């Protein structure tokens, strides 16, 4: 059996910046779709809203879009809307909207386990620049001194 045949499902919204995906987790009402919509407004593409499916390919986790309602996201108070989307992207980052980052410059990068792979994890930052920071982290990476 190839590793691509096993699918894990997560209650999360995932968007891609280029080929790099961020999976946004957290309890209902924590702002998963809101952050995703902000990222999409900056040029990201939706992979999956509310249910993210992970497959392993060549030892790396990829998020694939579920076949139901591709490119549709729920905007609280607005309804279901169509947005730019893609069908697959490699998972590079997890944002946990259920926890708040209190440190200005966290001393170490948090990681979380997704299908046996350690993935960098950020906690929610309650600031207007958070989506822009996540977008640029995916597109350009971290500064070498911060790694």
TrEMBL record:
GO terms for molecular function: ATP binding; phosphorelay sensor kinase activity. SUPFAM superfamilies: PEP carboxykinase-like. Its EC number is 2.7.11.-. It holds the Pfam family Hpr_kinase_C. It is an enzyme of class 2 (transferase). Residues 9-108 form the HPr kinase/phosphorylase C-terminal domain. It comes from the Bacteria. Coiled coil: none annotated. One of its GO terms (biological process) is regulation of carbohydrate metabolic process. Keywords: Kinase, Transferase. This is HPr kinase/phosphorylase. It comes from Aliiroseovarius pelagivivens.
């Amino acid at each position: 059996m190839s590793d691509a045949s096993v699918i894990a499902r997560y209650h999360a919204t995932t968007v891609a910046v280029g080929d790099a995906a961020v999976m946004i987790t957290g309890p209902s009402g924590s702002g998963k779709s809101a952050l995703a919509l902000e990222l999409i407004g900056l040029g990201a593409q939706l992979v999956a809203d509310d249910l993210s499916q992970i497959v392993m390919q060549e030892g790396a986790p990829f998020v694939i879009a579920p076949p139901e309602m591709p490119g549709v996201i729920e905007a609280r108070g607005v309804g279901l809307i169509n947005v730019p989307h893609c069908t697959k992207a490699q998972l590079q980052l997890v944002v946990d909207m259920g926890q708040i980052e209190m440190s200005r410059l966290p001393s170490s990068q948090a990681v979380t386990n997704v299908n046996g792979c350690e993935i960098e994890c950020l906690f929610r930052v309650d600031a207007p620049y958070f989506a822009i920071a996540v977008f640029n982290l995916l597109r350009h990476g971290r500064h070498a001194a911060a790694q």
